[in-house]
Amino acid sequence: MQKPAPTEPHVHGPDCDHGHHHEPQLPYRREQPKPGRNEPCFCGSGRKYKKCHGA
């Protein structure tokens, strides 16, 4: 049995009609600023974030 001929990958563009939406995604926004690596961990363990949940 022969392998099928390779095809070019489909490139989705604004005129694509494959039934899916091409809406731009909004960037992720945190509700609170990201904790610093040397700040105490948010879980209350007393360890630095980088040694606890930041690992």
Describe this structure in words.
- The protein has 55 residues and is largely without helices or strands.
- It is elongated, with a radius of gyration of 23 Å.
Which word captures the global form? elongated
Note the main sheet.
none
The end-to-end span amounts to: 50 Å
What structural class should be given to the helix and strand makeup? little secondary structure
Residues in helix, %: under 10%
Uncertain residue ranges: none
Roughly what fraction of the amino acids lie in strands?
Answer: under 5%
Radius of gyration: 23 Å
Mean pLDDT: 79
> How many H/I helices?
0
Q: Count the E strands.
A: 0
In short:
The chain has 55 residues and is low in regular secondary structure. 0% of the residues lie in helices and 0% in strands.
List keywords for this structure.
single chain, little secondary structure, 0% strand
Give the arrangement of secondary structure elements.
Elements: no helix or strand
